[in-house]
Amino acid sequence: MTARRFTIIRAANSAYPTWVIYSHRTRRLVRALPPRPEPLRFYSYDRALTWVHRNETP
User: Fold this and answer.
1) Helix (H, G, I), strand (E, B) or coil at 9
2) How far apart are CA 15 and CA 50, in angstroms?
3) How sure is the predictor about 1, in pLDDT bands with cuts at 50, 70 and 90?
4) What is the mean pLDDT of residues 19-42?
5) CA nearest 42: which of 26, 30, 24, 27?
6) How confident is the model at residue 34 (pLDDT cuts 50, 70, 90)?
7) Do strands 6-10 and 28-29 pair parallel, antiparallel, or not at all (unpaired)?
8) DSSP category for residue 32
9) E strand or H helix that includes residue 39
């Protein structure tokens, strides 16, 4: 069994549902465009899930 690399979590302080990706490897939110501080945001859980599936495999 392989440990998951990413987890999808709901962004805090958002007026509408926004999802961000947490990296278990770095223990931080995945950044939109490193080295910028903004996290990668999704406005749909399905799109976040698609991103995780694409990037889960090394």
Assistant:
1) strand
2) 23
3) very low
4) 90
5) 30
6) confident
7) unpaired
8) S
9) none
pTM: 0.81
Radius of gyration, alpha carbons of the chain? 11
Classify residue 5 as exposed, middle or buried by CB count within 10 Å of its CB (0-12, 13-18, 19+).
middle
- Torsion region of 27: left, alpha or beta (phi above 0 gives left; psi -120 to 50 gives alpha): left
* Contact residues for 56 (Cβ-Cβ < 8 A; gap 6+): 4, 5, 6
Those residues whose C-beta lies under 8 Å from the C-beta of residue 10, and which sit 6 or more positions away, are 17, 18, 19, 20
Q: Token digits for 7?
A: 């987890």
* CA–CA dist 42, 58 (Å, integer): 22
Which two three-digit tokens encode residue 26?
Answer: 């770095």
